[in-house]
Amino acid sequence: MEHYSPTFKALGMTFDIPVMLMSVLASILVLILVTISTRNMTTGVPRGMQNFFEWVIDFVRGIAGQFMDAKTGTKFVTLGITLFLYIFISNQMGVLANFNVTYTEPNPSLGITQEVINQHGHAVTHDGHTVKEVTVSWFKSPTASPSVTFGLALMVLLYAHYLGIKKSPGKYVKHWFEPSPAMFILHVMEEFIIKPLTLPLRLFGNIFAGEVLIAFLLAGSAAAVSIPLVIWLGYSVFVGSIQAYIFTTLTLVYISQKVVDDH
Description:
One of its GO terms (molecular function) is proton-transporting ATP synthase activity, rotational mechanism. It comes from Aneurinibacillus soli. This is ATP synthase subunit a. The protein has two domains: 7-100 and 142-261, no CATH class; 101-138, no CATH class. The strands form two sheets. Strands 1, 4, 5 and 6 form a four-stranded mixed β-sheet that branches. A two-stranded antiparallel ribbon has the order 2-3. The chain is built from nine helices and six strands; from the N terminus they run βββααααβαββαααα. The chain has helices at 17-38, 48-65, 70-74, 77-96, 114-120, 146-167, 169-175, 184-218, 222-259; strands spanning 3-4, 7-10, 13-16, 100-103, 122-126, 129-137. The termini are far apart. The relative contact order is 0.14. By secondary structure, it is of the alpha+beta class. β5 and β6 form a beta hairpin.
């Protein structure tokens, strides 16, 4: 079954309304989680959510410590925590709740016009009458959209280059020609083709494929798909966690390549 995603255009760009709403919701959930975890913090033995948040800090600090010294890595722990929590929560949103709404009547305020129903709707029978309805997946993982994953990757890669230029403009220019001038082409391919494609596509592909299979299983008979669906939901939670870890790790690796002299 085809799912339609309402959009609107502004400034020559197309905006996906469900993806925008889910991106904002994921940010709000991260803010709520951090607020709850850090209120009433104590210097004694941590308990409850404080214990969880301190584990997240140590986890991200441990990742950074693999590629940078402790002093340098501490500067990027906040970025790593933000990315890890945002991507982890975004990845799980479409797994834990997958709500679809069907429309048989136009609703222009939501981007559902008669033209959209005619073009993207499928025929169904209601009370003996055949009508067209369009299905909208309002609640889904924002990271199942390439616009979100490419946006995150672009932010990370531009920030890494900014840090490299800020640290030492001369060394930043020099590294493009090391260990020999012939490596310049390979460095350009790595920085402007390989990294900008592999970082977002890995996250998008894994989350999108998982949600497609969930939607496929939900459309089947409950008796036939119940067990496979439960197994796949559990596996999707695991995949979403791993992908958040991989994106955060690669972010810190790319930053370390620009701010650590050994690279």
